[in-house]
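To illustrate the input format used throughout this study, we show a single complete record. The first block contains the structure-token representation of the backbone; no residue identities are included at this stage. The design step must infer an amino acid for every position from geometry alone.
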């Protein structure tokens, strides 16, 4: 029986956090992702202060990184003596928050009394190997996870792939342009706002000991193009984009309140999982009728706060997923959060680091650390999968909620409310620009990319390499402009 009768013994609590980072230029000394994961897991166990905490975990779940391991959870289980643990591996397209929510849900239901969620990516190691003309080696694994999670659909529309869109930045930039047009900002005003938003993120990163970049930058440093800060997809420079060439790992040790007390884990180490929510409805960017809103974030955000019994005005700490600025801005608006307040606890993915498919674990570790230190009583961590395709939230606090842990799935409501449009591979005729960007691929001339509403009611993507048009699109608003489309090429109407 736990000390306080007001705390359900099945209440999920985060009792151990572990992070690990390396920046090693020597490929012979750089550790592979599995080793970073194992170190983060051991640190999470040490952080809980209980030698038995790791050995008894009932589930070990990981989001897939850019590694080739078949079952990293199995290796973790063997290393910590948790031989009976169920191992879970989630591919890209599954929300990172979903793994945390599943672990908390199983603990709350009494199915298990503890769980690990861990992950890592070594993008810097991959980069250094590529620069040396080598491949970053990894050890082989022959076993398979007990559970493999895959998304229900693809993240890209076939028309987006056919148009040659290779990286998410182009589609995020298209969403950003629609957002700017909705707000009525000029192109220059918008770029100033983007710089100001991420200037504060860089300042937060400077105070985070686990951040990859700890040098605060000015708004102009971030938004102005330079040799070390090239344009990626207008209006995004490199410093607006997630820094994924990082070697970072994180691990979360969760257990029931009853288990935490039985293990003798001090109450001061407990951070309570109040609620989780998600929308798993998948609609590609090109098919979204309204490019400037995120209904899934609105519904999931309201649901997690209501389930956790916390008003948005009571949130002391917030970390909004920050792969690109539009993810931050759209989530903030849907939640009713002002852009002027701090919207990250880590410093965000461009500065703290955006390890591939693992950032939410890093952010949750930092959130727990700050709550423990008394720098906030409640904190919200946001999750994104794809191109704002899936949305999720985790609500944490220094005290349990009255109703215990809750999980809300708003997938069906999002599917019902999200209006869509048919997307065609190529169109011939008149159209109106719904969103656009200018893509700056390395060693290629900049090209304008538009997503347009056609005169037949469909959506279509088209390109232009006209230098004069490219310059125009980077200096004046083009959303709402009429164009003529000939297949996948467009000209101003």
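Output of the design step:
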């Amino acid at each position: 029986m736990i000390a306080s009768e007001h705390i359900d013994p099945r209440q999920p609590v985060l009792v151990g956090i572990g992070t690990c980072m390396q920046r090693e230029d020597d490929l012979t000394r750089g550790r592979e992702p599995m080793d970073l994961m194992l170190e983060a897991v051991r640190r999470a166990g040490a952080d809980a202060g209980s030698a038995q905490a790791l050995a008894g975990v009932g589930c070990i779940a990981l989001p897939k990184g850019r590694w080739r391991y078949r079952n990293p959870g199995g290796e973790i289980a063997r290393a910590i003596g948790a031989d009976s643990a169920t191992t879970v591996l989630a591919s890209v397209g599954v929300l990172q928050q979903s793994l945390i929510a599943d672990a908390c849900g199983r603990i709350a239901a009494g199915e298990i009394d503890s769980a690990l969620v861990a992950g890592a990516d070594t993008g810097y190691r991959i980069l250094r190997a590529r620069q040396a003309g080598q491949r970053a080696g990894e050890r082989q694994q022959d076993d398979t996870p007990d559970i493999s999670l895959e998304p229900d659909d693809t993240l890209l529309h076939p028309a987006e792939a056919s148009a040659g869109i290779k990286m998410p930045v182009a589609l995020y930039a298209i969403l950003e342009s629609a957002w700017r047009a909705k707000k009525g900002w000029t192109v220059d005003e918008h770029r100033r706002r983007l710089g100001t938003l991420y200037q504060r993120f860089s300042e937060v990163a400077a105070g985070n000991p686990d951040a990859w970049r700890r040098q605060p930058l000015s708004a102009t440093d971030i938004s102005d193009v330079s040799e070390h800060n090239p344009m990626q997809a207008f209006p995004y420079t490199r410093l607006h984009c997630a820094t994924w060439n990082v070697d970072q790992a994180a691990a979360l040790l969760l257990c029931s309140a009853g288990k935490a007390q039985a293990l003798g884990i001090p109450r001061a180490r407990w951070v309570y999982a109040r609620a989780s929510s998600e929308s798993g409805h998948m609609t590609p960017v090109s098919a979204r009728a309204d490019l400037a809103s995120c209904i899934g974030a609105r519904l999931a955000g309201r649901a997690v706060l209501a389930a956790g019994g916390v008003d948005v005005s009571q949130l002391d700490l917030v970390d909004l997923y920050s792969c690109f600025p539009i993810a931050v801005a759209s989530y903030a608006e849907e939640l009713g959060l002002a852009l002027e307040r701090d919207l990250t606890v880590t410093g965000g993915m461009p500065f703290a680091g955006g390890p591939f498919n693992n950032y939410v674990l890093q952010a949750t570790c930092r959130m727990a650390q700050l709550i423990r230190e008394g720098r906030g009583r409640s904190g919200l961590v946001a999750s994104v999968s794809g191109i704002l395709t899936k949305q999720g939230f985790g609500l944490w606090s220094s005290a349990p909620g009255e109703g215990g842990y809750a999980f809300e799935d708003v997938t069906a409501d999002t599917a019902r409310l999200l209006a869509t449009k048919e997307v065609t591979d190529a169109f011939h005729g008149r159209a109106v620009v719904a969103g656009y960007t200018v893509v700056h691929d390395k060693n290629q001339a900049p090209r304008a990319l538009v997503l347009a509403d056609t005169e037949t009611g469909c959506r279509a993507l088209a390109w232009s390499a006209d230098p004069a048009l490219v310059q125009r699109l980077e200096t004046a608003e083009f959303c709402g402009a009429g164009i003529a489309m000939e297949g996948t090429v467009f000209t101003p109407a």
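Structural context for interpreting the output: The first helix runs from residue 33 to 48. The two ends are 74 Å apart (CA to CA).
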